[in-house]
Amino acid sequence: MNSTDAAQKAPAKDPWELPDVSGLVVGVLGGTGDQGRGLAYRLARAGQKVIIGSRAAERAETAARELGHGVEGAANAECARRSDIVIVAVPWDGHAATLTALRDDLAGKLVVDCVNPLGFDKKGAYALKPEEGSAAEQAAALLPESRVTAAFHHLSAVLLQDPAVEKIDTDVMVLGEVRADCETVQALAARIPGMRGVFAGRLRNAHQVESLVANLISVNRRYKAHAGLRITDV
């Protein structure tokens, strides 16, 4: 049997067969902001070991105590070094500076960028396009020794932080260059009840995913909602 025949006979992998990530430590840079706090809370509540980072360790430690569920707080550099997966949830205007300062600490790490470059004026929110193409592509350019993915862009910080909300019914679009890394992030998303991680392409497609948040902000304002996304037929 030649290699072509063997490949044809090999069973296709189930796309929903994802790795066990329950033992991984998740760091959240920007963990004292609304989105970062919400993600840290949900993952810790699901049983994940979580460390939140801030420029000031004391601020991170205070936020960690408020979140409970075993969350720890640390300065950004320590958070990055102690984590297996690092979620970047910092404000867009501090994105490049934060990642540049942490380049060495993030080397070898799986980095998940969830930053949405947005501007605001009297007409509402609108998407910005970074020189690199997207926030995720900027992260990849600044962190050449890290494995950068993009995910968690479309989640409501209000729902994430509300302890009365048991499930968050939404899909998380995951983008990246290495399928195994994307599957790890998909599995992390699936740790949160109601969520599902869905592979959505390579990082070159991250801009439109990040930009969609501007539309969701308009939806939420018009309908007084906390809208998310569901992808049909998968």
From TrEMBL:
Transmembrane segments: none annotated. Residues 26-117 form the Pyrroline-5-carboxylate reductase catalytic N-terminal domain. Gene3D superfamilies: NAD(P)-binding Rossmann-like Domain. One of its GO terms (molecular function) is cupric reductase (NADH) activity. It comes from the Bacteria. One of its GO terms (cellular component) is plasma membrane. One of its GO terms (biological process) is copper ion import. It holds the Pfam family F420_oxidored. InterPro entries: NAD(P)-bd_dom_sf, NpdG, P5C_Rdtase_cat_N, STEAP_metalloreductase. The keyword Oxidoreductase applies. Keywords: Oxidoreductase. NCBIfam families: npdG. This is NADPH-dependent F420 reductase. It comes from Streptomyces xinghaiensis. The gene is npdG.
